[in-house]
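Record filed below.
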Amino acid sequence: MRTPLFLILYLCSLGAAEVPPNFVVILGEAQGWASLSIPLDDRNVAGSRSDYIQTPNLDSIGKSGVSFSDFYAAAPRCTPSRAALYTGRSPTQLRMTFVSEGKKDGVLNSGDKVIAPACTTELPAAIETMATLLRKRGYATAHFGKWHLGRVNPTEHGFDESDGANSNGGPDEVENPNPKQCLLTAQKGCDFIARQVKAKKPFYLEIDQYPGRQGESATPETIAAVKKRLGENFNSQNLNRAAGCEEIDKSIGQVLAQLKALGVSSNTYIIYTADHGAQGANSNGILTNGKGTIWEGGVRVPLLISGPEIKAGTFSHLRASHVDLLPTVAELAGLASASLPKGIEGVSLVSVLKGKSTELLPRARDDFVIHYPHYDKDELGPTSAIYYKNYKLIRVYETSQSLLFDLNTDIGEKKNLAATLPAVVAELEQRLTEYLKQQGGLLPQPNPHYDPAGVRSVDSRGGNGGGKKSKPKK
């Protein structure tokens, strides 16, 4: 018997609809808000892009998808923000708020006015991750590049393939893992994609970059090309950073080209973000400070997403963060929100990505907290920040001082409004206290051995995270 043509077309349409999308997630290392050659914010074009770094491949993701202007790392350091991305949970909930376990003995740092809380750097084995959820859905999963979530291999956290539990030095434990590693991770990613396409299996590929700030992080050819473009007398630090970033961008281009060559780019979501802001000068644009600080330059980072049904060249000004990526990927992969594990703090961005809504789904809380109770690159010492509506409050634990900024009118955090808006300060302080109490705290404690002339826990590479410094106005 002949099958009617309309039935054949109907069955084919069902089959096409059932083909799950692929995912390629690229996580930049210390990629500042203004480190790409396209603007991250159409309201601040000049202040949200680089005028000397060229990133044509990353630019293509933004031009073919959505750029989020108000996207935040969960912390201004690698380990906590990466943990949040994989789990959809805040570093505070995971008790992973720093890159080390923290100083437990105030005597060792008698110049510290408070004792930073101890925390963990190992991703809990029992916590569901993006990879474990997708693998249950039938996805092949792979992670190549920087891991920095403890010594346990990513294969123990849901990834079928991995090149190891690498930190900043990569598998070779060297000072400058790039250009070797950025090229290798791209090659491994391309090979993984090819094998999954051949097997007709949906895939989730994550490539996490290593730092690319030094001239040694690029090939001689790339360095020469950048010198020719910028001129031999161009600022050497910026020239080296440009070469490193552009080498990474080239490697990303190889992955994008592989998707296109194998005919799967139209069914693949590409997500690019960074673990925290940059430390180098001029990499965070008009934002204040950078890596290791809770100021905007340390935590506001790029987010570019392209893929099926996403309108090209659009901007979103909605506040979102790393914890939102897991529920977003889960929904795009067809996982019902009810099937996600309890404790996830993020919400899906899908309705905004596909233009079905201009607002995000309701959150458990309508504020957003970045808790960073550690001594690092900020002269303020341990801090927490809470975002609510257009306001951002920074709590300084050493002085019990509150700093208040209106980000709608002062994205550079230059004007402290705490003295003129005490009611707003009181409300945000109460909200912050409630959140930290709900999550179990990790609060700094007074140091009984405090000595103003003693040794203070300041990062050995310098007290400030780069970008434009800002001292709070009293």
User: Anything to note?
Assistant: The chain has two domains: 20-353, 368-446. The mean pLDDT is 90. DSSP finds twelve helices and 16 strands in the chain.
